[in-house]
């Protein structure tokens, strides 16, 4: 059975609602914790590094965002910049399988920008703030 009711009472909230998923970081600069970094397959079955980050939002809630670094030739300079920002220097990309898991807990200053053609946020690593082994000290 299809229910049909007047939805106009929701219009104002809908107009002012942000896009994205619940708990997504809004545009801005954050001190974020790297939750995980791993090599995964994209929807198109291409290899990529998937970075998952979380940070405190202005509302006081913890927000999350993801960054994807495609492992294709034209994107490797960007991956190299991100790794350099994190203090990682590898000469063989296979070493990423060992290095990436150890980055969990690293604090990074990031910039989140939603003015991006594909609708996903553009997440830029600005600087590493703290290594994970400093956590809790």
Provide structural commentary:
Strand 4 and strand 5 form a beta hairpin. Helices cover 15% and strands 36% of the residues. The mean pLDDT is 85. By secondary structure, it is an alpha+beta fold. It has one domain: OB fold (Dihydrolipoamide Acetyltransferase, E2P) (Beta Barrel), CATH 2.40.50. It contains 3 helices and 5 strands. The protein has a 5-stranded antiparallel sheet with strand order 3-2-1-4-5, with helices on one face.
Give the distance, in angstroms, between the N- and C-terminal Cα atoms. 58 Å
Order of helices and strands: HEEEHHEE
Strand content: 35-45%
How many helices? 3
Report the average pLDDT across residues. Answer: 85
CATH third-tier fold name: OB fold (Dihydrolipoamide Acetyltransferase, E2P)
Structural class: alpha+beta
Largest sheet: 5 strands, antiparallel
The tally of domains stands at 1
Global morphology: globular
Q: What would CATH call the class?
A: Mainly Beta
Helix percentage: 10-25%
Short key terms for the protein model shown above:
5 strands; globular; alpha+beta; 137 residues; OB fold (Dihydrolipoamide Acetyltransferase, E2P); five-stranded antiparallel beta sheet
What would a concise description of this structure say?
The chain has 3 helices and 5 strands; from the N terminus they run H-E-E-E-H-H-E-E.
């Amino acid at each position: 059975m299809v229910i049909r009711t007047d939805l106009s009472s929701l219009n104002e909230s809908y107009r002012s609602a942000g896009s994205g998923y619940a708990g997504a970081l809004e545009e801005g600069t954050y001190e974020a914790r790297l939750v995980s970094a791993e090599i995964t397959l994209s929807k198109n079955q291409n290899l990529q590094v998937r970075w998952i980050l979380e940070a405190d939002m202005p509302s006081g809630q913890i927000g999350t965002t993801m960054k994807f670094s495609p492992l294709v030739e034209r994107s490797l300079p960007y991956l190299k910049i991100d790794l350099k920002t994190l203090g990682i220097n590898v000469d063989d990309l296979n070493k990423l399988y060992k290095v990436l898991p150890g980055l969990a807990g690293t604090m990074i200053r990031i910039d989140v920008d939603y003015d991006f053609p594909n609708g996903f946020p553009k997440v830029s690593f600005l600087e590493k703030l703290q290594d994970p082994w400093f956590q809790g000290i």
